[in-house]
Amino acid sequence: MLNKLVIYGVGLIGGSFARALKAAGAVRHVVGIDRSEASVRRALELGIIDEAATEPESEAAAIRGADLVVLATPVAQTGRILQGLLPHLDAHTIVTDCGSTKADVVAAARAVLGGRIGQFVPGHPIAGRETNGPDAAIADLYIGKKFVVTALAENAPEAVERVTGAWRACGAIIHRLAPEEHDKVFASVSHLPHLLAYALVDDIAGKPHAGLLFQYAASGFRDFTRIAGSSPEMWRDISLANQAALLAELDAYMAQLVHLRERLAAGDGATLEAVYGNAQRARRQWIETIEAAEAPAPKDTAE
To answer: What is the CATH number of domain 182-266?
Structure first.
């Protein structure tokens, strides 16, 4: 049970975390902080939070005595937020984040927190929707989904447990990765797909007959480009924060595209079918694995 939870960013991720903990009876009081006063007021109206901190003085009071502070904001804001909360951070308070990149977040935390870095437990919930804001928050967003904790050497076991225990209460399955390993993995399976979806929609939108093209775009296009509806600011920050790993994945993907273009130009149907077939089998296997992983009564992994 958390007596006091403070959430920076009361949109989809932070709002859903608060809703899930409330639904589980795992938190007594939730304070919301957001750079958008309209968002924090809306979160209060929806019952996502119990208290809105909209002024520096109220933010300072909110942080004092908190059991857990969660940063559910774009990763580029990490250093600034930590700088602001540090003077008010009690010794028992644990801070965590929900950022999609980890090495940059850890570097920012080390730079600001210094000798108190042990109070920061970095993490990343692997769940989301293409909608944003408090109205998008749902209590069951994290059920059966992964939460990756990228614990630091300075983190006490009880600090890590406070974070992972809260995510378990939300229904998440706990995984463990090193920050650098995390960023390489997600450059491939998350950051690159977002870049590709944005690029495709932007390319079509820029064509002189874009209206006609969108008129005939159906379910396949919708499914492929769904993630292009995500927050541009958040994904700008993620792309730049994980630049090296994302560039490596983009280069490999571009080489694959060049190969496919050559085979298409040559009329090499056999190679095209082989690539398509391999992709189909890999995707089916992945879907089966995901369905098994999200079955009831999951156990934590030491991945």
So the answer is: 1.10.3660.10
